[in-house]
Amino acid sequence: MSRKPCCVGEGLKKGAWTTEEDKKLISYIHEHGEGGWRDIPQKAGLKRCGKSCRLRWANYLKPDIKRGEFSYEEEQIIIMLHASRGNKWSVIARHLPKRTDNEVKNYWNTHLKKRLIDQGIDPLTHKPLASNPNPATPRTSEGQDDSNPINLDEQSQSGSMSPKSLPHSSSSCNLQTIINSDETPRNNGSLSSKKCRFKKLSSTSKLLNKVATKASSIGNMLSASMEGSLIRSTTLSPCLNDVFSETSQFLRWTSLIHSLTPLNNI
DNA sequence: AAACATTCCAACCGCGAGGTG
DNA sequence: GCACCTCGCGGTTGGAATGTT
């Protein structure tokens, strides 16, 4: 047998949605609720396939969708979850309230992936690239990286992290220093933020570099327990409560999270 | 100002999972 | 177990917006 194509039909419209179509879809769903996507176009008076309606609703029209630039927290969550789960965009998006899988995927592909590559980090493995012209953890003259007691590069390459070498909240890393040095204010929700994103790339890259390397180190640890229950004490973001299990390993992980909490105060 | 290049994201496509009869 | 359907997911693409020459 052959699958019947979803969107076969005469006069079915494709491409960008008009405001008129949006109104029709919103109005129909408000009245009848979601579901039954195959019938929605006909009932709502739309010349679209059901799939297209579902995507339009899920990715754009849903009332609780947050748009605009991703926050540092969100970027970190994406990188960390990607390190442990790979391209499971729907899984990652579930931990980012009001973000859609499509948006997360786009953000990864257009921003985060490139930044990791720029820093010599393989976006697939989250480990330093083999031929790395731009070392993942550059030793700068500022000495900030050197003050980090944990050699994350080595750990990520070895694929494991000993308990002793795990970060501690008091001395875990210089993320806060780096964050504080990133003076560029976030341009929340601004669509004209392209320039800003590139201008702040340098300092942001440092942060991402750090986070990505850490993510690599803890990736295996996370993946083993990601489906577990929660660590309620995590203060980075409530959504992360869904991520981590109550194992002793993850108490160490929360140490890292606590080291990142100053982000909330920026 | 125009032509060309690059970036970005909304939307499309194909596939697989799960449900139903 | 099968055929079929709906839905959701992840990869890809078209084209508008923006940047560069």
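qc> Residues 19-61 of chain A form a domain with the Arc Repressor Mutant, subunit A fold (CATH 1.10.10).
qc> done
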